[in-house]
Amino acid sequence: MKKPLIISATVVAAMIALAGCSTGTDGGSMPGMNHGTSTTSTQPSVSGTEHNAADTMFAQMMIPHHVQAVEMSDIMLAKKDLDAKIKALAEEIKAAQDPEITKMTTWLTGWSEPTAMAGSHSMNGMMTSADMNKLKAAEGAEASQLFLTQMIAHHEGAVEMAKNEVTDGKNADAVALAKSIVSSQEAEINVMEDLLATL
């Protein structure tokens, strides 16, 4: 019984190593996501498989966090007569976070970790069902103001989680993504605060 297990583990390890190579090149091609592909290309198996509890928690928590940000953006993009700057921001958030969701899901699968955390865990910046319903119901300038206010809080929560990963994480790719999230979302917070001041 042990022999098939050893073979299957070897196959899984090889697949993970290959996945590590592919995620490294994908990340390098995205704007603002160039986080040292030379490191991942020289040691793909290390960055692809080695991880700790902080890496797992970061991915498991950031996935639903990103999913909600994409949902909030979709809500805004479905509204009529949406301000062009708000539309561009919502599209930018979707374009950045959709591929990151896929990337983190792939990592968790490669690490043989569940893609969702067991039990309920509170995450800073997450909107409640009531918050989401308010955003859906709002129109015009009110919708734009609400979206910006909610998304600023949402981004601040993501930045906090990402900073924890930078401090405590082990996986090179996960730490690099966390650093990218900190820089990109802090920049978007500044943009949103400026937009909010003009509404």
From TrEMBL:
PROSITE patterns: PROKAR_LIPOPROTEIN. Residues 1-19 form the signal peptide. Transmembrane segments: none annotated. Residues 28-49 are annotated as: Disordered. Residues 55-196 form the DUF305 domain. It comes from the Bacteria. Keywords: Signal. It holds the Pfam family DUF305. Residues 35-49 have a biased composition (Polar residues). This is DUF305 domain-containing protein. It comes from Arthrobacter glacialis.
